[in-house]
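So, does this match?
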Amino acid sequence: MPEVYVAAGSNVEPYKHLARAARELAGAFPGARCSSWYRNRAVGFEGEDFINFVAGFSTEQPLEAVIAHLQAIEGLCGRTRTAPRWAPRSMDLDILLYGTQVLDTPAVRLPRPDLLKRAYMLGPLAELAPELIHPTAGASIGTLWRQFDQAAHPLIRVPTSDAHEAVG
């Protein structure tokens, strides 16, 4: 059964939308677990900071079904499929890894190509699965995170109590 890792991020009512996404992921994928939540600057546009986490879960569902669940969760959080790519988001759920699968199609690229370039993806993934071997880099996620220029891409951990209080 493949282990799937998904990056979640929001900069529009982030605590509310991320809490909903976490609940929905746990409902759709029993046993789902989440990293800590992190604040980081918007990438690719000027905007409010994002709050991000990575979720991991095992599933027998095919990739297409997982993508459909993620898009449905994004919709529940107010995301429309026509939103501009580099703009504020109520919810963004991106598959980072689907087992050891390597895909390069117009619809899906796995492992996610920017996983090794984005602190807000790699850092929380290293927290969840430091020993996991990246399917194309051939090194553990923990090693890749230690080699990453963390000072140039700071993540600020959001205390869990702050996240829970903001959600209500």
Notes: The chain has one domain: 3-167. The beta strands are 3-10, 33-34, 37-40, 50-58, 92-98, 103-104, 109-110, 156-158. The helical segments are 14-28, 63-76, 119-128, 141-147, 160-167. The chain is about 30% helix and 20% strand.
